[in-house]
Amino acid sequence: MASKEITLLIVDDDPVVTTALRAQVNRISGFRVVAIAHTGREALAAARRFAPRLVLLDLHLPDISGLDVAHQLRRPDYSPTDVIVISGRRESAAVQAAMQRGALYYLIKPARTGTVEQTLLRYAAASAHLSAGEGMVEQRAIDRVFRSLHLDAVVRPKSISAATERVVLDALAAAGRDLSAHETAEAVGISRATARRYLEYLADRGDVVTSLRYGSSGRPQHRYRFCDS
């Protein structure tokens, strides 16, 4: 997650919804709600005053539509802000219009607490990937950002534990070079088959870069390197 706190504006005409969303966001480390707005005009005024990094935006507002709010937030006289829509509207036209006006993601009400939390954490991860780099970025780094941002990450299977995954990643990072499954297994203290399973999973997720090395026998050896960009 990015080291800098992510400020957030919640926009919804229903006070019950905004209260619930505020409570959900406040439980997530690294996020802070700076304002609540119940109308489009309140949202635009709050965005100008607080310059939030992220806006959780409903489309149904009593004065101007959320789509118009999203469109106006793109104007150069507003500080750059990202928008995630949370709406009860399910029409494909509404989703498409939100995307065209710059929405990064679209959640359908009622959004479960876990879904909101996951979405915000993925947003934070994508922001961290970009802020960690300097200058130019490689295509694989861009791919990782978009996988995080649009929730297209590989789902962790039951055979993959978070603890072992972390140990394998740490071993690759500490090595500072590519490793084979056998070398990774020795470094971590697990079987070669288990190391290979974790390495392939991490490669599918984009955290590990794979390559082939040909030896004297002509049979290629899979090598794995920690993706630090």
TrEMBL record:
Gene3D superfamilies: 3.40.50.2300, Winged helix-like DNA-binding domain superfamily/Winged helix DNA-binding domain. Keywords: Activator, Cytoplasm, DNA-binding, Phosphoprotein, Transcription, Transcription regulation, Two-component regulatory system. InterPro entries: 2C-system_Tx_regulators, CheY-like_superfamily, DpiA-like_HTH, Sig_transdc_resp-reg_cit/mal, Sig_transdc_resp-reg_receiver, WH-like_DNA-bd_sf, WH_DNA-bd_sf. The lineage of its organism: Bacteria, Bacillati, Actinomycetota, Actinomycetes, Kitasatosporales. The keyword Ribonucleoprotein does not apply. It holds the Pfam family Response_reg. The modification 4-aspartylphosphate is found at D58. It comes from the Bacteria. Its main location: cytoplasm. It is found in: Cytoplasm. PANTHER family: TRANSCRIPTIONAL REGULATORY PROTEIN DCUR-RELATED (PTHR45526:SF1), TRANSCRIPTIONAL REGULATORY PROTEIN DPIA (PTHR45526). Residues 7-124 form the Response regulatory domain. This is Transcriptional regulatory protein.
